[in-house]
Design goal:
This protein is an alpha+beta fold and about 675 residues long. It contains 16 helices and 35 strands. It binds guanosine-5'-diphosphate and magnesium ion.
Length: about 675
């Protein structure tokens, strides 16, 4: 396989709402570049990127898929991503592997929920953006209106670089060689709009253009074009039909000639060191420097094992390179270096900045880790991405007895693949809760567990993940003293507790003076205190946002033992909580409901009726709207069914944790009473 230099590499993610045609477009691009003899179809389950058995049954992408092609001496890495809110974690992660986000919009459906989210997320990540309006072949689509909607939603810097012609059967170029007739608007005008927009970022060129009235060639425009892309001053719009192939060659041409190479994009931000010595730095896309590569995707296959998919940001990785994982001390040797084509792969000798490749069977590799080859630069990581915090939960237990350990192993494997999955243990009910972004997300996770790992589970609705905290400062004290025949037990602890701001977690401080509690017993006190955290005394929920300061105590030269201080620490903490006005916190989620316009009133009214707050509505297109709001999670029980009923099946929603806030008093009392009953039951 030919080697490519960084300047001849492009990395592009196809992102956007579900059913916009991303997977079909990826297929069409592979065919147009000759990487694939003929296009498969999503419906028949024969595409390169939806190769997973579950994707074939569901007929849409559940995971991101990495592909590559070659065109005009350029290697293009493509990442096809899922477009449903439930699977958006994969799409967010892909943004760290590319310079360009190609946001695919269906000409029929227009701007949708994930379209706007991906536009915003990729802008926040400083990616160059390209809008691809797909399905220009389809019947009854108003392509002109879709372009207008894109510009209304994302600004006038969205400018067509080509336009549909012959009723969507082909496209005409507005940039390199403008000419011909388009189905709507003038090609010459589109050309001038582009040139005007581009030269705004280059004063010298602007002067040449304005004062001397000189024509500017596309070559002269290249550098300012890239600058305009980098600064978000220009978002080119292309038109295609992934189905008929119209505009696909032209899109490939745009990717080769205009999409930034790694040196033309905005370099990503890395962080190294910890605490005060933490420094931020940008990678340099230079093949001769130290290696910096970022793992943005991990696939765990029961047969092949773990595959770490990474983007090279700096340096050259060759077969036999020794690489460190994050701050790991022991390097691993790259045995096989793979370029992926969906589920298949080809081996290559080396990869350089801009390349996306994979290594197999390296245990230490996890999602989001950085691979590097410098011994002294430890703890290197990328500026973290923000993923939605999963709140949709299901309590699970293995169907077969004795599978508990395997369930825990499999869930850890699945979490390593998916940053939007979480597992919680409900200490009080001794129950395992799996959390994801939505019903579909959890269902596909459980299906994968069954099909891929042959692990079947029973499910039931989980408890709401309430939390407990305190609202006042208080002091606590306990003296643990036991005299049982021989050696006694003695330990005494004085501590102070105070509330931390929401999200502050837990802090433990040792302020003991003069060794009244000997240093070696402090960990025992901390252990006792931490025993309380999993199940708070008020209603049995995890306790958070508390600082505990141990400041005094007493010990006995003979009878003081670890157990004594564990017990004293625990009871002193309970004593303090009792006086610190403990309360129950409830999770409030951010919801986004997408529905046809006529149902907006009902949806908003219904959310308000659920102690919710509607924070806004956004027009998407084609008569559909997104209603955004915040609602306590406990009020969303059965919401999927309710939404279906309200919108005759045309609504969709997603949610993620917003914050925790005090539960209403009646709910507090109820939860505390249930806990008291439960405890009494256990004591009887
Ligand atoms: N008419 C038409 N249909 C298309 C086109 N591209 C994709 N589709 C169809 O739209 C549906 C969704 O396509 P898919 O590629 O799975 O979309 P994705 O969810 O964005 O990956 C499928 O039924 C495709 O056959 C197109 O250019 N024209
Ligand atoms: Mg897809």
């Amino acid at each position: 396989m030919a080697q490519f230099e960084t300047s001849n590499i492009r990395s592009i993610a196809l992102v956007g709402h579900g059913a916009a045609g991303k997977t079909t477009l990826a297929e069409a691009l592979l065919v147009a570049a000759g990487a694939l003899p003929a296009a498969g179809s999503v419906e028949r389950g024969t595409t390169v990127s939806d190769g997973d058995p579950l994707e074939k049954t569901w007929q849409h992408s559940l995971r991101s898929s990495v592909m590559h092609l070659e065109s005009a001496g350029t290697r293009i890495h493509l990442i096809d991503t899922p477009g449903y809110p439930d699977f958006v974690g994969q799409s967010i992660a892909a943004l760290d592997a590319v310079e360009t986000a190609a946001v695919v919009v269906s000409a029929g459906a227009g701007v949708e929920m994930i379209t706007s989210r991906m536009m915003a997320w990729s802008a926040a990540r400083k990616l160059c953006r390209l809008v691809v309006i797909n399905k220009i072949d389809a019947d009854n689509v108003d392509v002109e209106a879709t372009l207008a909607a894109v510009r209304a939603a994302f600004g006038n810097e969205c400018l067509p670089i080509n336009l549909p012609a012959d009723g969507g059967k082909r496209v005409v170029d507005c940039f390199f060689n403008p000419g011909g007739e388009s189905d709507f608007s003038s090609v010459a005008q589109a050309h001038h709009a582009l040139v005007d927009q581009v030269i705004e970022v280059d004063e010298a060129l602007m002067a040449q253009y304005l004062e001397q009235g000189e024509e500017i060639t596309p070559d002269e425009l290249h550098a300012p074009f890239e600058k305009a892309l980098r600064e978000g001053h220009l978002v080119p719009v292309c038109f295609v039909s992934a189905r008929t192939g119209a505009g696909v060659r032209e899109l490939l041409d745009v990717m080769v000639r205009l999409a930034p190479n790694p040196a033309e994009g905005n370099p990503p931000l890395f962080i190294k060191g910890a605490g005060d010595s933490e420094v931020e730095f940008h990678s340099v896309p230079d093949a001769a420097k130290h290696v910096l590569a970022h793992v943005f995707k991990v696939v765990i296959d029961p047969y092949v094992g773990k595959l770490g998919v990474f983007r090279v940001h700096q340096g050259t990785v060759t077969r036999d390179t020794q690489l460190f994982v994050g701050d790991g001390r022991k390097p691993f040797k790259v045995a096989h270096l793979l370029l992926l084509q969906g589920g298949k792969s080809v081996e290559v000798d080396s990869v350089v900045p801009g390349d996306i490749a994979a290594v197999a069977k390296v245990d230490d590799i996890g999602f989001d880790c950085v691979l590097h080859d410098s011994h002294d630069e430890d703890a290197i990581r990328m500026r973290p991405l923000e993923f939605p915090v999963p709140m949709h939960g299901v309590a699970i237990a293995p169907k077969r007895r004795g599978d508990e350990q395997r369930l825990s192993d499999v869930m850890h494997k699945m979490m390593a693949e998916d940053p939007t999955l979480a597992v919680e243990h409900d200490a009080q009910l001794n129950e395992t809760v799996l959390r994801g972004l939505g019903e579909l997300h959890l269902r596909s996770t459980l299906e994968r567990m069954a099909s891929q790992f042959k692990l079947e589970v029973e499910t039931r609705p989980p408890r709401i993940p309430y939390r407990e905290t305190i609202t006042a400062k208080a002091e606590g004290h306990h003296r643990h003293k036991k005299q049982t025949g021989g050696a006694g037990q003695f330990g005494e602890v004085y501590l102070r507790i105070e509330p931390l701001p929401r999200g502050g977690g837990f802090e433990f401080k040792d302020a003991v003076k003069g060794g009244t509690i000997p240093t070696q017993y402090i960990p025992a006190v901390q252990k006792g205190v931490e025993q309380v955290l999993a199940s708070g005394p008020l209603a049995g929920f995890p306790l958070q946002d508390v600082r505990v300061t141990v400041y005094d105590g007493k010990h006995h030269p003979v009878d003081s033992k670890e157990v004594a201080f564990v017990s004293a620490g625990r009871k002193a903490f309970l004593d303090a909580i009792d006086k610190a006005r403990p309360i129950v916190l409830e999770p409030v989620v951010h919801v986004e409901v997408m529905c046809p316009g006529e149902h907006v009133g009902d949806i908003a009214g219904d959310l308000s009726g659920r102690r919710g707050q509607v924070t806004g509505t956004r027009t998407l297109q084609a008569g559909s709207l997104a209603v955004e709001g915040q609602v306590p999670l406990s009020e969303l029980d059965g919401y999927a069914a309710r939404l279906k009923a309200m919108t005759a099946g045309h609504g969709a929603y997603s949610m993620a944790l917003s914050h925790y806030e005090p539960a209403p008093p009646a709910l507090q009392t109820q939860l505390a009473a249930e806990h008291a009953k439960h405890r009494k039951h256990e004591e009887d």
